[in-house]
């Protein structure tokens, strides 16, 4: 089947045809490094991660770039709380983003460019726009002239006349209210950070003195937000790319302005496919740092673990509404438990002495084939991770039926089931099937066996309360104990 994607630019689901049939240029709008990353950010990360993994599975050479916006007024507003300067605050949160990405088992992008290291490329791009008549200088700032680009509004399906002012119009500098800044003269005004400041941050006047500025043909200043992604994408990919992904809230003005300034500068289509991830909601509001209704990635990983979180985030397709709640996370916990148990039962039965070369269960083998074909069809249908995960859950049911229904196992069928879990669930969805999670697992197993031996001794001595306490303490550490006629067994 051909991969089809929902393209915001056309409003249609289209067959995916990259410019180069052998490779894909993929850009993802990353974070402004001013706040702790939360699950709303993780929703985009994980879905883009799976997109890149699937494109690789299809045989493409994937060039995946994701930026860090480390120059922004919101970052200046955190000076004194998370660092002594704008650069320090940005560095603090870039470190946290990287740590959180690793904790969620995200594959590494090809590169993570930062705005602060691409100011020369930004200035060059702004100069191209000024020279071509698409931008103009006013009192040291440079603005993009939206009326100079005939297709302005095509991504968000708006007309220039319907668009209200974008940003402040200092002393009437802008020719049209919808014109937007490519370069901002001077530093950061304390008024620009007032609404973003925290009580623990430095006074606005003091914080703004740490804001970064650069020399330019128009004087000292700072790059505008929208021009940054165009410059970084062109630097590390090309002037025309295949896929540009971002959050749904970025369609306008950010992505609309990226289209205009990029295509005005190059005369080429900037991105062929625009994919937008719907926002994560909680209590019917988007999860947002500014609203304070977020659950940080680091706290969520500590509480639930990466597999439950990836299961939660991928249980809804990227184009569908997603809600964070106790109920939806509990559903993900149950779903991941079913998947991991299914994998473990398949692996254990495959390695059992009762797994035979000449035992055949066509129902199991057909279920493996169905799971793979259904998974592939779902992923080719606009990266539908929800249906892809359902395919693996169906495979779990087939494995359970096989293991529970017979004394002798179909080795080949079980081996194919194990490989399907590992390849599709592990390599594509990024779940940790068959992984030990780090550490010395054999030593951990020896320690658990020792505790269970002590627990049995307590039970034999009639100290049932203490035995129950040991079991509860093990379960609190993630060790599930099951008492059987042959003695206790456990699962980490």
What does this structure look like?
With 492 residues, the protein is an alpha/beta fold. It has three domains: 260 residues, HUPs (Rossmann fold), CATH 3.40.50; 102 residues, Four Helix Bundle (Hemerythrin (Met), subunit A); 51 residues, no CATH class. Helix content is 45%, strand content 15%. β1 and β2 form a beta hairpin. α10 crosses α11 and α11 runs antiparallel to α14. The two termini are 39 Å apart.
What does the secondary structure layout of this molecule look like, with pairings?
Blueprint: E1 4-7, E2 12-15, E3 23-28, H1 39-57, E4 61-66, H2 73-76, H3 86-103, H4 119-131, E5 135-138, E6 141-144, E7 180-185, H5 190-193, H6 204-208, E8 221-223, H7 225-236, E9 241-247, H8 251-266, E10 271-277, E11 280-282, E12 285-286, H9 297-304, H10 306-314, E13 322-323, H11 326-350, E14 355-356, H12 362-380, H13 385-404, E15 409-410, H14 411-428, H15 441-460, H16 464-476, E16 480-484, E17 487-491
Helix pairs in contact: 4-7, 7-8, 9-10, 10-11, 11-13, 11-14, 12-13, 12-14, 13-14, 15-16
Basic shape: globular
> How is the main sheet built?
4 strands, parallel
The amount of helix comes to 40-55%
Structural class: alpha/beta
Oligomer: single chain
* Distance N to C terminus: 39 Å
For the largest sheet, list the strands in their spatial order: 4-3-9-10
Mean pLDDT: 93
Number-wise, the strands total 17
Strand content: 5-15%
CATH class of the largest domain: Alpha Beta
How many structural domains in the coordinates?
3
Low-confidence spans: pLDDT under 50, at least 5 residues? 436-442
CATH fold descriptor of the largest domain: Rossmann fold
* CATH-defined architecture of the largest domain: 3-Layer(aba) Sandwich
Number of helices: 16
* Radius of gyration, taken over Cα atoms and rounded to an integer in Å: 27 Å
């Amino acid at each position: 089947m051909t991969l089809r994607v929902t393209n915001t630019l056309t409003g249609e689901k289209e067959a995916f045809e990259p410019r180069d049939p052998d490779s894909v240029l993929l850009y993802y709008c990353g974070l402004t490094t001013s706040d702790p990353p939360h699950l709303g950010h993780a929703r985009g990360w994980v879905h883009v991660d799976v997109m890149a993994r699937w494109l690789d599975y299809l045989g493409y050479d994937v060039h995946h770039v994701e930026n860090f916006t480390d120059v922004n007024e919101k970052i200046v507003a955190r000076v004194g709380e998370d660092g002594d300067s704008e650069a320090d605050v940005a560095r603090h949160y870039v470190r946290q983003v990287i740590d959180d990405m690793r904790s969620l088992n995200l594959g590494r992008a090809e590169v993570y460019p930062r705005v602060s290291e691409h100011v020369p490329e930004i200035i060059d791009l702004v100069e191209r726009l000024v020279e071509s008549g698409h931008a103009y200088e006013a009192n040291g700032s440079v603005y993009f002239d939206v009326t100079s680009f005939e297709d302005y509004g095509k991504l968000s399906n708006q007309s220039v006349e319907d668009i209200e002012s974008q940003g402040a119009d200092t002393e009437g500098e802008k020719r049209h209210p919808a014109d937007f800044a490519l370069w901002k003269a001077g530093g950061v005004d304390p008024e620009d950070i007032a609404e973003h400041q925290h009580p623990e941050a430095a006074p606005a006047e003091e914080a703004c003195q740490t804001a970064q500025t650069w020399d330019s043909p128009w004087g000292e200043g700072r790059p505008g937000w929208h021009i940054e992604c165009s410059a970084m994408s062109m630097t590390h990919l090309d002037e025309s790319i295949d896929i540009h992904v971002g959050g749904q809230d970025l369609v306008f003005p950010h992505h609309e302005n990226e289209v205009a300034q990029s295509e005005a500068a190059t005369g080429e289509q900037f991105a062929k496919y625009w994919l937008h991830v719907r926002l994560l909601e909680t209590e019917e509001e988007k999860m947002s740092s500014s609203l304070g209704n977020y659950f940080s990635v680091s706290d969520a990983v500590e509480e639930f673990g990466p597999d439950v979180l990836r299961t939660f985030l991928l249980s809804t397709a990227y184009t569908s509404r997603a809600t964070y709640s106790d109920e939806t996370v509990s559903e993900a916990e149950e779903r991941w438990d079913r998947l991991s148990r299914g994998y473990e039962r398949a692996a254990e039965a495959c390695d059992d002495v009762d797994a035979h070369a000449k035992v055949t269960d066509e129902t199991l083998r057909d279920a493996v084939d169905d799971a793979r074909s259904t998974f592939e069809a779902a992923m080719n249908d606009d990266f539908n991770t929800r249906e892809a995960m359902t395919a693996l859950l169906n495979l779990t049911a087939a494995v359970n039926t096989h293991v529970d229904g017979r004394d002798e196992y179909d080795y080949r069928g079980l081996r194919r089931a194990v490989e399907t879990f590992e390849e599709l669930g592990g390599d594509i969805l990024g779940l940790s099937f068959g992984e030990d999670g780090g550490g010395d697992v054999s030593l951990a197993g020896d320690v658990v066996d020792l505790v269970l031996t002590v627990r049995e001794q307590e039970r034999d001595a009639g100290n049932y309360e203490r035995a129950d306490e040991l079991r509860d303490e093990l379960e609190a550490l993630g060790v599930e104990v099951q008492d059987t006629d042959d003695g206790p067994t456990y699962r980490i």
